[in-house]
Specification:
single chain
């Protein structure tokens, strides 16, 4: 994919299901664990603001990188 540096696909528990071929398993596991925790916290904030709403996409943009987390319930 052009412009994509890497990807990690994981379940709601943070278990990696697939990741970029040239990414080490440790890096994929660390990203999945940390982003799963962050998405869970962002979901809680979203629900605090509106109990009838749910988080779908979490976008994190820095000066050099962008991370997009698609957070879906089972």
């Amino acid at each position: 994919m052009e412009g994509v540096e890497g990807y990690v696909i994981c379940n709601n528990d943070g278990t990696v299901l697939r990741h970029q071929v040239d990414m080490t398993k440790k890096v994929a596991d660390d990203l999945a664990r940390n982003l799963t925790k962050l998405a869970s916290r962002a979901t809680n904030v979203t629900r605090d603001l509106d109990p009838n709403d749910d988080l779908r996409i979490l976008r994190i943009k820095t000066g050099r990188k962008e991370i997009i987390v698609s957070h879906e319930r089972d």
